[in-house]
Model the fold of this input.
Amino acid sequence: MTAEIKKILFIGFGNPSRGDDGLGPAIAERLENENFPGVTVDADYQLTVEDSENAAKHDIVIFADASVNCDEPFSFKPLAARQSESFTSHSVEPAEVIGLAEKLFNSKAKPFMLEIRGYNFEMFEEDLTEKAKKNLEKAWDFLKELLKKQNFNIVACA
Amino acid sequence: MSQTKRVVIEPVTRVEGHGKVSLLLDENNKVKQARFHVVEFRGFERFIQGRPYWEVPVLVQRLCGICPVSHHLAAAKAMDKIVGVDKLTPTAEKMRRLMHYGQMFQSHALHFFHLCSPDLLFGFDADPAIRNVIGVALKYPDLAVQGVMMRKYGQEIIRATAGKKIHGTGAIPGGINKNLSIAERDEFLKDIKQMYDWSKSALKIAKDYTVQNLEKLTPFASFDSSHLSLIREDGAMDLYHGNLRAIDSQGKKIFDQVDYSKYLDYIVEEVKPWSYMKFPFIKQVGPQDGWYRVGPLARLNTCDFIDTPLAEEARKEFMAVTNGKPNNITMAYHWARMIELLHSIEKINDLLNDKDLQGNDLVVKGQKRYEGVGLIEAPRGTLFHHYKIDENDQITMANLIVSTTNNNEAFNRSVQKVAADHIDGVAKITEGLLNHIEVAIRAYDPCLSCATHAMGKMPLKVTLYDYQGNEIDNKTKE
Done:
């Protein structure tokens, strides 16, 4: 008897024209090319409210983003839903997406945050910095293992 | 010497990107000066130089993660001119229109349900702990879900017409790169009635709110202004294409049916030392009084009619409030936006039932030109893209006037008006009072820039300056 494959949503977000801000879409692009069973991959400049409806249709949701201050080379943690008191814009934060998913769509999805350390976020820099590229490689190795083993009983990993 | 202090609120919550409001107060807390600052990048116009022209419709999407479609289509329209194409095939034009109305629909829906509705449903002065989208979700869960589902519907239309969310390539110089399949069309038609119903319901909320609170809203952040938009040759509202029309606050035409490729003969961009954002004005009126408003309110004011029946009926009701004269009530932006929401779903329905969307004649070719201008009515207002290329097909010049820049002077007027009406003489600046300023700015749905959003990089910063410009206090909210 084989274990049931979890329905996983992976969302990499960021602007590829802002240097290392493109780390999220970059790792999403790699994942999309791998065709892991049960994994749906999305990439966008920013998260928006309709991501909450999509999140609610999955067992696991992994958000991937560049970070200016996470541990090097990356960090991976469970995410707590946040019922934000105000939104700054049409875009929303991962915890707010999950908060809306739970509130509006009765989501039971288990959320995680993959943050990859970036260094340069200047506008109209299309390339990742060398350090960010190395961090991306390490995050990618971790992600592949995670999705193969499907062990999501993780407290935190860096 | 009169003592003054400057209060800076950064960023304004629930608007796009980052901006800050500074209020210069004197020792009696009288507002001496009010300004809305926008950190707008102009780097794109340099960045794009040297790139081949055909890359531009893709690259410009990175200007803004919120309205990439508007930049994509405005740039594509400019590139149509570069490749010598003045008229697209019916399939190409209608696919682009479908993409655009999908964008308009999702943007207006999201703004209404998730950004402005907390102010309208709970009141400007309500406790911020409930005056937010979660408060709406708790008290009006159906409305919050509608907002998400309408946004999703529009986004799916964009996906079907433009391709991927990042690096969408739908519009290309001279046309479009795909048509709409029957399966895609039927998927959208399946939910169209629901979208109609929700749009009508949202319009009713905005209309009833405005009419019931007209006395309070009429002076709020309001002032007489000129209005500018694209207009169809017969005077109809057209959000995708047309000529330029500008009217004054009484409805008198300043110019009409101007070919937008000649915009530099009519619009001048002024630079002011305290703002990164330019201040456009109508040349023949001059810098002092030539500023104007764009966006839903302006479009309702400039058009002679709307060519879809439900939105036209709503437009007549809207114009009746001001006896057919231009409506200069800033808070009426919300009502106007919901009329456009209904118009957009009517247009989407018309397009989905048009067999041209399944055509295969997608691209037209022409004789290369060295200059192209493309304009579109983006959700927030008129968007200008202007490019020149050299003999190697590389961009040598780019000039953009984004919707929010067109409304720049209007923002300052609204902030000044609200500050004078609501904050003058009040010793303590409460969250409720500050929110009056935010409510005024939110009416325009400004998009302030493409903010990088990397985790941990978006603090809320409040800074206090003394009369000599020295920072005496600041607070940061992570």
In short: DSSP finds 15 helices and 16 strands in chain B. Residues 43-165+180-406 of chain B form a domain with the Cytochrome-c3 Hydrogenase; chain B fold (CATH 1.10.645.10). The CA atoms of residues 123 and 446 of chain B lie 21 Å apart.
